[in-house]
Amino acid sequence: MGRALITELTKRGANMIALSTSTVQSLPDSPEIVTWQLGKEAELRDRLQHIDILILNHGVNVLGARDSQSIYKSYEVNTFSVFRWIDLFIEANSAQIANKEIWVNTSEAEVNIALSPLYELSKRAIGDLVTLRRLDGFCPIRKLILGPFKSDLNPYGVMSPTFVAWAIAVLAQIGCYDIIVTINPITFVAYPFKEFWRSLYFRVFSRPST
After folding, report:
1. Considering the entire predicted model, what is its pTM?
2. What's the CA gap between 62 and 60, in Å, rounded?
3. Is 73 buried (19+), middle (13-18) or exposed (0-12) by CB count in 10 A?
4. Rounded distance between C-alpha atoms, residue 85 and residue 11, angstroms
5. Is 191 one of the catalytic residues?
6. Residue 6 above 70 pLDDT?
7. pLDDT at res. 22
8. Which of 72, 75, 119, 156 does the annotation list as catalytic?
9. Residue 104, CB-side half-sphere exposure with 13 Å CA sphere
10. Is 69 exposed, middle or buried (0-12, 13-18, 19+ CB in 10 A)?
11. Domains assigned to the chain
């Protein structure tokens, strides 16, 4: 999905910078590649000042595993690392954060099964944290609620990453903040229902950030 988004957004005039935890030698459309390590996101804080839109797409799927190591890994990658990036981006751009954006790939696992319990649990956690953080209105945060596209994380995927990337770009361009791209009609009903009530609950029982 990262590669597909780079290609699609470059076509639309974006200057892309790829963030990768692996030693990637080259990517389509030759963007700058910046490597980072899990847990050391803060080392790139200064680089975030020069980014207008931060797209958080990294993740891990341990499939059917349920041992302690897999639990820690799933939450560290899919939940806590993503949230650290969000905090860093807001902090690094505090003076002009209203002009920035964050896009987070939370997956339709927020409301549907993904045949991988730990993937579902960790993705639902970051989905709820993004909903909570949206209430403070630091900057626009778009959720990418994506159905099963073919990738290393999801060998069962049926949608083309190229199509999904195109749909994300189109829906973002017309102003959608909850970008749903899926073949499952249930998601188009279940997600808005879930998001409304979770947002209302968080707004009533939590305090604004100072």
Report:
1. 0.92
2. 6
3. middle
4. 26
5. no
6. yes
7. 82
8. 119
9. 30
10. exposed
11. 2-205 (3.40.50.720)
